[in-house]
Amino acid sequence: ITNGGKTTLAEKLKKMLPNCDIISQDDFFKPESEVETDERGFKLYDVLDALYMDEMVKTIHNWMKNPASSGVVTEGLQNTCDNLKNTDVHVLIVEGFLLYNYKPLNELWDRRYFLTLPYEECKRRRSTRVYQPADTPGYFDGHVWPMYLKYKNELEENASSVVYLDGTKSQEDLLSYVYSDIMEELQKLKE
């Protein structure tokens, strides 16, 4: 969901996990001139066609082929298990709002987390952000929220092994849960 805490959670995890890098879906938006406009004048940013998804998949595959040369910097690790700091295990966090609705990505995930927010909280958070281009009046209700519901419904019908996270919980609680889950998986890989 928009403004659910995806980027904040990813950045905090990166500081705590060994050999970790982040790829953000926001880095793959098409320029405004290439994004379609609907009959109400809304730019349709909350759809897959607003993104260079093939480029995103290519970037992820390139990282997977050679994560050690991906520019990952591991300094500043906090609270990481000492026996994982100098390991050959690499972690890639891919964060975005339409990750599980794009079939070429679905075979890549080891873990899937989906942050949710109730309508009012999401709208409140969205109203505190400044976007370029700026949200037009009615954009949240007319495009953003309906697209979130559409893609969430698709996800619930088609994707498995998704952990739903309550975005109203504290950042510390979310971080603690996801970090523990990832560390448990890393321990399994190491063994």
UniProtKB/TrEMBL annotation:
Any one GO molecular-function label of the UniProt entry: ATP binding
Chemical reaction(s) catalysed: beta-nicotinamide D-riboside + ATP = beta-nicotinamide D-ribonucleotide + ADP + H(+); beta-D-ribosylnicotinate + ATP = nicotinate beta-D-ribonucleotide + ADP + H(+)
Keyword line: ATP-binding, Kinase, Magnesium, Metal-binding, Nucleotide-binding, Pyridine nucleotide biosynthesis, Transferase
Organism: Urocolius indicus
InterPro entries, alphabetized: P-loop_NTPase
UniProt-recorded name of the protein: NRK1 kinase
Encoding gene, per UniProt annotation: Nmrk1
BP terms from Gene Ontology: NAD+ metabolic process; pyridine nucleotide biosynthetic process
Keyword NADP: no
GO cellular component terms attached to this protein's record: cytosol
Pathway membership: Cofactor biosynthesis; NAD(+) biosynthesis
